[in-house]
Amino acid sequence: MKKITIAIDGHSSCGKSTMAKDLARELGYIYIDSGAMYRAVTLYSLRKGFFTPEGIDTQSLQADMPNIHISFRLNPESQRPMTYLNGENVEEAIRTMEVSSRVSPIAALGFVREALVKQQQEMGKAKGIVMDGRDIGTVVFPDAELKIFVTASAEIRARRRYEELKAKGQEAPYEEILANVKERDYIDQNREVSPLRKADDAILLDNSEMSIPEQKQWLMEKYQAVVHG
Ligand code: DC
Fold first, then answer.
1. Which of 45, 90, 103 to mutate to test the pocket of ligand 1 (most atoms within 8 A of CB)?
2. CB-CB contact of 29 with 23 (8 Å)
3. Protein residue with its CA nearest to atom 5 in ligand 1
4. Separation CA 201–CA 203 (nearest Å)
5. How far, in Å, CA of 151 to CA of 196, rounded?
6. Using an 8 Å Cβ cutoff, are 177 and 161 in contact?
7. Who contacts 193 (Cβ-Cβ below 8 Å, separation ≥6)?
8. Backbone angles phi, psi at 62, to 5 degrees
9. CA of 1 relative to ligand 1 center, distance in Å
10. 131 beta partners
11. pLDDT along the chain (229 residues), means of 10
């Protein structure tokens, strides 16, 4: 069967990664969570003290970009992809509220995007890849055979993230999460470099009222339609 490139973009916390991961597993494709890469750069910047009261020390971050190596490895037990930053498993460390609340300004930096997009395009060269993010269908893989743009209401997304954090023992107030979701939407959609937008040829999916199995089936149908015409 011919291998294709699948780009899944959309708002934060709308279940993109769950969908993308499941589809990749089912098809035997590589799954790349591009948001994890922006999060890893954010974690690196926090650890290095690049967030200062005057703003982000972009000069130091830019100088350090060649020293930031991000990779993904499958956890042999869970078969889930884990994010590594310079050889360290940072999968949990990049999902904290601290990183979530700092990642948007990092993802708005042109030199950060340029470096990460290049790596993402390299990862997708052989096709057979599902990548999720914000600019996958518009910038990273404009020629992807299947492009999906996922959204859901801010309240539903905040509720999902709340449950997700709670399950991990990192409970945070719902109102704070909702404010974070809305703020990230605003920054993601209004930044100058590669703002979040639906590619003209992407299929829109509003999953506010959909269950995970329903989404899975919907996505599989779209995939089948592309490969079997
Ligand atoms: O999908 P996520 O919530 O893990 O993404 C974290 C942040 O990274 C989010 O604020 C948007 C940004 N991002 C981006 O700008 N481009 C991507 N391709 C993926 C994520």
1. 103
2. yes
3. 35
4. 7
5. 12
6. yes
7. 108, 109, 110, 113
8. -60, -40
9. 31
10. 7, 32
11. 94 89 94 97 98 97 96 88 96 93 93 97 95 96 97 94 90 93 89 91 94 93 93
Pocket of ligand 1 (CB under 6 A): 12, 34-35, 38-39, 103-104, 107, 133-136, 184, 188
CA distance 38 to 15: 18
SS3 assignment, position 73: strand
Closest Cα partner for 33 from 134, 109, 122?
Answer: 134
Tokens for 76, please give them.
């042999």
CB < 8 Å & 24+ apart, contacts of 76-85: 79/25, 80/21, 81/21, 81/31, 81/32, 81/33, 83/33, 83/36, 83/37, 83/39, 83/40, 85/40, 85/43, 85/44
What's the 88 CA to ligand 1 centre distance in angstroms? 21
